[in-house]
Specification:
Blueprint: H1 2-19, E1 38-42, H2 46-57, E2 67-73, H3 81-89, E3 95-100, H4 116-124, E4 128-131, H5 154-168, E5 187-191, H6 193-201, E6 206-207, H7 210-214, H8 220-223, E7 249-251, E8 253-254, H9 260-263, E9 275-277, E10 282-283, E11 290-296, E12 302-307, E13 313-316, E14 331-332, E15 341-342, H10 343-366
Parallel strand pairs: 1-2, 1-4, 2-3, 4-5, 5-13
Antiparallel strand pairs: 6-10, 7-9, 8-11, 11-12, 12-13, 14-15
Amino acid sequence: MKMNKRILLFLFVLSLFLHLPSTAQDYFKDGGEPGKTYLLMAHPTVENIQAMKYLIDNNILFVGETEIVGIYYSFENYNYSESVDYIHENELDNFHLQHLTGMLTPENIFSENDFSANFEIIFQQTLGIFFFGGPDIQPSLYHEENQYAVVTDPYRHLFELSLLFHLLGGPQNPDYIPLLESNPKYFVGGFCLGMQSMNVATGGTLIQDIPAELYDIDEPAEIVQLDKDKIHRNYWQEIFENDQLMPINFHQLHLPEDGFFENEVKWRGTTSPPVLSSHHQAIENLNDCWEVTAWSKDKKVIEGIRHKKYPNVFAFQFHPEVTALFEPTDSWLFSPSDQLRTYYDRIGQEGVKFHKKIWRLISKSIQ
């Protein structure tokens, strides 16, 4: 019996080391560096670091001397040693990493847990945080059975939902005082999954599959017959094998009059240029703490939200962070009958202006 316990303990400790990058960083272990300001990014993959670097280097995102710290949970389904190596090999002195360890379960993410103290320390040392796109959240976390979700990184969701709950609070634990109460102007931004996570963390739910639940169709051949503004990712890829088919779709938004985009983003008009869309899930029930800032053209899919109490907390269902929107790169097809064009050409000059205005607002919100 004692031997079995020793073996189990050994396997547990071994699993911890296997889940940690070989050169994981603890940037905030000694409190960062005096006099410096920091901005957080969750899920700091190489791709997300490259995107942030591009936006900063090309004066699309303005952060001044503020440095970037990527934070992540040790059990996420990503090899963060690749991010460590990328930062080191490219001498990115203004990018750092911080991994967090502890026990997160579906039962403790919306309450005090092993991460609570570290969340507060990191919050006090930073100006804001970005949450990026990614795979489906396990529906059990918003009290639904799984019908259409494909969950590939459950620990990432436990971590990001718990962090967002600590920042913003929610009805899951109404006595908890959100961290933003001590700094209401703290920036929290999300793209795609990031927006969905912000909603779930504050007590909301998700549509698990847009075509099936909103349009009552689930066959790709039927989905691609919808109006293009009702398609939120590219289903042609599931019909034809063609490496030139892009995985995403571009569609326009409906923007409420005298709303967030007019008053804050400074965009005139109730229709946007095309935006890059890559998702099959969307917000279903939205907590009362949020206001809707953008819809799909048919007003069935929420495309933007903003917190009613904290002015610098907002998110988008689309992807303004994709670097190919800002300069011509590879050319792609949407359908077999389409013409090859870059993302940059597909959104046009007005689209570039629209996305840069979004990033100006984000830059302003961080300062």
